[in-house]
Amino acid sequence: MRRLLKSRSVLVKALVSLKNQVHGLLLGYGIESQRGQLQSKKERQRILDGLADHRYGNAARAVKPLLETINQISSQVKKLEGALLDLVHEDDDVALLKTIPGVGLITAATIRAHTDDINRYESAGKYAAHAGLAPWVQNSNKTIHHGHITKRGPAELRTAFVQIVMGMLRLKNSTAGYWLMQKYRTMKEHKGTGKSIIATARKLNTIVYEILKTRKPFDPSRMKLDPKYLEMSKASKCYALVV
Question: How far is CA 182 from CA 54, 124, 196, in A?
């Protein structure tokens, strides 16, 4: 599973690089292209057809090889995803992970591949340490200092938890009411986007640990906002306005 995911990652990075090159070439010919225009084969062909009548005759010649290479690599990515789907078809852990909003095949498979057996970890804290999402701790005689996350363990696993956060943010119509997202929004106002995403990823790490440990799917009802937290949040905002 890890090898399939690694191969797919290499190809996806190549796709991103090629698409950036195409955007640059088109801009050089005075053609502004949108980020999502190269996502589908149909759109790529439409761009190529449009270049045939462009006032610069070499535009199509320059872009065509890159678009054809993108088509070939995209086809290979789909084959790898098909092989990955076959591999996890009856995997209970992947099925449980996919019950979390924002988690698809790749994210679920990545967590599964780099977690292996959840029973290896005695607590959610040790699982977070495995993912490199636990803050480093420095002890002295009188004080304990907590710093940034350790970033130890598989980078792919940390990225997967960040991807879940991003997925939940995109699905705001169904996740905006989650206490997790409310805390993210509150934290973002004070600590910025980056730190807030990592902090939320660490909380999701705990949720994933509980899901895999208890063998129970994601329960949206447990994501309801605590009325006490809402009152505290409102009071904090009012105090900030007064100050």
Answer: 50, 22, 11
Do both 162 and 82 map to the same domain?
Answer: no
Q: How confident is residue 30, by pLDDT bands cut at 50, 70 and 90?
A: confident
Which residue, among 218, 90, 236, has the nearest Cα to 164 in the 3D structure?
218
Neighbours of 132 (CB within 10 A): 17
CA distance 26 to 49: 13
**Number of independent structural domains in the chain:** 2
| Distance between CA atoms of residues 121 and 157, nearest Å | 15
Indicate the residue among 87, 107, 126 that finishes a domain.
Answer: 87
Q: Mean pLDDT, to the nearest integer, of 8-32?
A: 93
Instruction: Tell me the residue range of the domain where 60 lies.
Output: 2-87
Maximum average pLDDT range among 77-81, 143-147, 180-184: 77-81
Do 118 and 52 sit in the same domain of this protein? no
Q: For residue 116, what pLDDT band results from cuts at 50, 70 and 90?
A: confident
Closest CA to 33 of 23, 42, 41: 23
**Are residues 73 and 150 located together in one domain of the fold?**
no
Return the pLDDT at 79. 97
Helix (H) or strand (E) segment spanning residue 138: strand 135-139
Task: Write the single-letter amino acid at 184.
Answer: Y
